[in-house]
């Protein structure tokens, strides 16, 4: 996992870095991180997909989808060590590799490369969130749906319409019309 992250950002692997990751499999619909729990891991999706959601006063919001090759976490909780305001749920059976908070902190103490990597991960999360905000303000629901299909078409086809609609900020009926328009 760490090696893939280094490759992604074109950083050298330092011989002194001792890395302990864990591979874990989750079934479809399994909660990886519960809302109100403290996030202890950063994950790499080796196979599968997850959604990030939040439940407030019996109302569900779908904030993001992550697919194979993506790194994910309830990052605010991971960094702040405070309870997560979101939950992370698998969309399909999902295989992940993960590294825990203590291991990451230890790596930061051992290596300038690990510190750089941590900064680059934080920057990529910031860019992704800012792009999502811009997309919500500047793109139509149909454009956002097409973008989502480009990221994970085979998995999105398995996701219930109401969850995708919540992510897009529209009603399920509107998403059905968008899908019908794209087919014709």
Automatic annotation (TrEMBL):
<feature type="domain" description="Cyclic nucleotide-binding">
    <location>
        <begin position="5"/>
        <end position="112"/>
    </location>
</feature>
<protein>
    <submittedName>
        <fullName>Crp/Fnr family transcriptional regulator</fullName>
    </submittedName>
</protein>
<dbReference type="InterPro" id="IPR018490">
    <property type="entry name" value="cNMP-bd_dom_sf"/>
</dbReference>
<dbReference type="InterPro" id="IPR014710">
    <property type="entry name" value="RmlC-like_jellyroll"/>
</dbReference>
<dbReference type="Pfam" id="PF00027">
    <property type="entry name" value="cNMP_binding"/>
</dbReference>
<dbReference type="InterPro" id="IPR000595">
    <property type="entry name" value="cNMP-bd_dom"/>
</dbReference>
